[in-house]
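Next comes a single protein record:
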Amino acid sequence: MLIARTLSDLRAACTGLRRHADALALVPTMGALHEGHRTLVRAGVASGAATVASIFVNPLQFAATEDLSRYPRDEQSDLAALEAAGCALAWLPDVATMYPAGEATTITVAGPAERWEGDARPGHFRGVATVCAKLFGQVRPDRAYFGEKDWQQLQVVKRMVADLLLPLEIVGVETVRESDGLAMSSRNRFLSAAEKTNATALITALRDVAAGLARGEAASPLLAQARARLSGQGFTVDYLALVDGPTLAPLANAAPGARLIAAAKLGSVRLLDNIAAG
C-alpha cells in the first residue's frame, strides 16, 4: 500500500494507479477505523477500482463546543487495517494542506442539510461538504463510498455532487453493526461496558417503530412512545423521526423511501442510527 502525505505525492500515486486500474475509488475517513470503514474499502476493491482511503480529522466540522482533541487517533493501526482490506493508497494530509492560509471558500448545503444534525450541530455540514469537495478535487475518484449509518451526511454529499455537477458517483453502503445490533462507530469506544449494553436500545426503538408502521399504526404515537422509552432508559434524545430518505423532510406517515433516523446521547457519547421505514 502506498502512503501519501503531500499533494505532489498524492498526484503522482493516483497517476500511477490509473495506469493499472480502470477506476479510482475513494473512502473518506477521519481514522479510528473499525469494521464499517473496512467494509467501505472492501466495497471499493470489489468493484475493481484502485481504492484510496483518506485519513483526516476535519476541524471544520467540529463546533466550538465539541472536543476535537478527544477524537480518537491511531495512525499505525489504521494503516495496517487499510492495507489488510486491500487499500491501494492512504492519503494523510495535514491541516495546512487541507486549509492553506488565505483561502476564502467553503461550501454551504441547504435541503438535506437542514434540520436534525443541521440543527444539533450548526456548521457541521458546511465542514463535511467542504472537506469532501476538497478530497474529491485532490483524488479525482470515479466513485466515493460512504456508510449509511450517517444517513443525513450521505444525502448531503449526494446533493452537493449532483448540484455542482462533480464527475463522480456517491455509493452508500449498508450500516455495519455489532452482533447485538449496535451500529459501529469510532465513538463507541468511549461507552462503558454497561452503556454499550444499554446502547442497543436505540436500534431496538427504531425497529419497534418500523414494525408498528408496517402494521399500519400511526407514526406520531409510535415515535412519541419510542422517545419516552429511550428517555426512561437513560438516553437524552435529540430526535427520533420519520423522514423522506433523500430530502430528510419530516413525514407524517410511512412512504416509499422513508427513513427512521435517530440521535441520542448516552453518557458522554452521542449515538446516531437509522433504518428504512418504507
